[in-house]
Structures are given as C-alpha cells and as structure tokens.
Amino acid sequence: MVGQVRQQIGASVRELRKVRRWTQAELAERLGLSQARLSEIERGKGSFAAEHLLEIFRLFNVDPSHFSPPNARVSHEDQLWNAAARLGAEHLLESERVLPSQRVQDVHDLLREGLVYARPARLLTALAAVLVARADEVQLHVVEEQLAQLGLQQRLGWLVENTLAALRGLKDSACTPAIASRCRRAEVILSAWLCVPRPQRPAGAVDVLDAGIRSEKSRALVEQRRSPISARWGILSELTVEDFARAMAGAHNSGIELAGA
Hints:
The protein is mainly α. It has 13 helices and two strands. A two-stranded parallel ribbon has the order 1-2. Residues 254-261 have low confidence and may be disordered.
C-alpha cells in the first residue's frame, strides 16, 4: 500500500512538472532537493518530506486531493469543463458529480489552466464563449503574465484574436439585444488588449498545441493547414475561426447565426 501511494504521488508530480515544462533539475532546485533524489521520488522509490509537499501544493496550485488514486478523484479536464460551463460556455453540460475545484475558482484560473491543458479541442473553443461572457471582469494582462512564466503567453493572444474574428463573423441581426450588446462590448475590450505592443516571439518558435500531432509527418501537415491566426502566433493547431464561432453560437442556444449561414 505504501509503495502504491509513493508511485501515485511520484507520477502526479512528474505530470505536473511536465505540464509546466520544468526539467527535473529546475523543480529539484525549487524544492531544495538534488535532481537524483527527485528522480527517485518520481519513480516511486522515495517520499517527500512534509515541507516539500507543502511547497508542491503552492508551486502547482493544487490541493492534497490531487494526489488521490485516479479512481477516487475527478480529472482536471472534468473540472475545467464544469468551470467553463459555469462561466459562460452554456453549450457545455455541467456534471453534477464534479465538485468545484480550488484550482479553478474564477475566469482567470480557467483561462490559464485551459490554455495550459489545451485539450480537448471543444474545451479550447469554449474559452471564446467565456471571454465574451466575462469580458468586463477578466483582466487579460494577469492571465498573460501567468502564462508568460511558463513561456505560453502566445496562446492567450491566439485565443483572443480567434475570438475577435469569430465575433466579427456573427450576425448582429440574429442576436437578442442583450447578446448583441454583450458581443459588441467584448469586441471593444478584446480589441484594446490585442492592440497593446508585445515583444516579438523568437523566429521559428512553434507551440505544438494539438494533442493529435505525434509525428513529424502530422506536424508538417498541420503546419500547412493552420490558419493565418495560428501562423501569426506560432501555434500548431487545426482549429479555425469557424470552430470558435460555432462554440459561441452554441453557448447562446443557437440564438446567434454565423455570417454566410
């Protein structure tokens, strides 16, 4: 039993570290451990001291339940799904069996964690509906700073530009006055944020977003097919403006029609 617990904790820490794109050496330094010791723990051959576990909770913004056995806890994807449904993606069905997560408490948490987790595609496009619904309360610079610490800030720009393009492709005449007003307000806020000058990303830098890219062949294919927006932000994804527009239309119970439909 003790060995199983150690393996579960080690595997969970390894997964969290890889999501943050930290090497073993980087995490070991933050915890005050040697890389060799951390390697042993991640393989289930040792255990953390209490102070190290507390630092892990702080570094990764998780609570102790995250380290429970898989059959005893809800997946992070389920928690993100519910948070998106609650915060504006009304086309997603919220599961009653999933309790609110301490890790995803507000729109800033959802945007950060959703863009880091980046799957499934339907959850990513749902973030556009959340941006529109919560435009007045979201502080995009806060999310950008948090993602910048992980080197993933370009994902937010990619999401915002896709959301703006999707908004401009919706028919105002097909919206209720309240929805049309909300969309126009979101367009003003998102446009203002997108106009702020940002450092240029390194030439040739590519962020492989789609989980289906698992070979050089599939990577090359997606690179050929990706949208101009994805190319501008250095994102490798097959998602298009139309995917984000469909998510926003669905969030309003099909009360919004797509331009050209």
